[in-house]
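Lab notebook, bench 4. Still working through the backlog of constructs that have no structural model yet. Next entry is a single chain of 212 residues. Request: give me the structure tokens for it.
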Amino acid sequence: MLLWVSGAATASQHREPGDFAYYVLALSWSPSFCASRGDRDPLQCNSRHRYDFVVHGLWPQYHRGWPQFCDAGVARLPEALPASIVDSMLNIMPSRDLVRHQWNKHGTCTGLGPEEYFALTRRLHDGIRIPARYVEPARSIEVSVRQIVADFVSTNRGLTPAMISVDCGNRRDTARLAELRICFSRDGALAACGDNERRQCRARRLVLPPVR
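Model written out:
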């Protein structure tokens, strides 16, 4: 799961921890991920837990581009991340490899330590209310991009369309929802997104496969 890259939004070679403009909380639609990956992640895709939206990551962003793989000393190494931290995140990030990778690629650029970074990730995740229709749906959901944005805006006080972006790949007709990206200021308040999130999903219809 990679951030969209174009001439307007690219990974930066500047790697000074703590130097960024805002955060993106990326929430993946787990059934779409499992369908596209062929259930290769058993913890997320073949467990007894029925996952709907899960955390892909918390990403520090510039207004154009983003830092990654910053120099945070030995703490940058995925194997240096304590198992207790990894395990504590699995109910919202159901992949040990994902938790380690997110720290290595993105967490190291926040200027926070691992405990602070994942505590902030959980706090921002827990502060977003998922509209009822998207909580463990037993059947596929079909909506427009405008409708899913409206659903989240109406369910979350202070959230506006400028603070949310929808990713579904490059399809123009019908596409699976990949993820929602919600933007926050450096101090964790909802905030308008930058240029990185301006490219919205262009599909006429979004399909959200049911949870399993």
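Notes after review: Residues 22-208 form a domain with the Ribonuclease Rh; Chain A fold (CATH 3.90.730.10). The mean pLDDT is 89. Flag for follow-up if needed.
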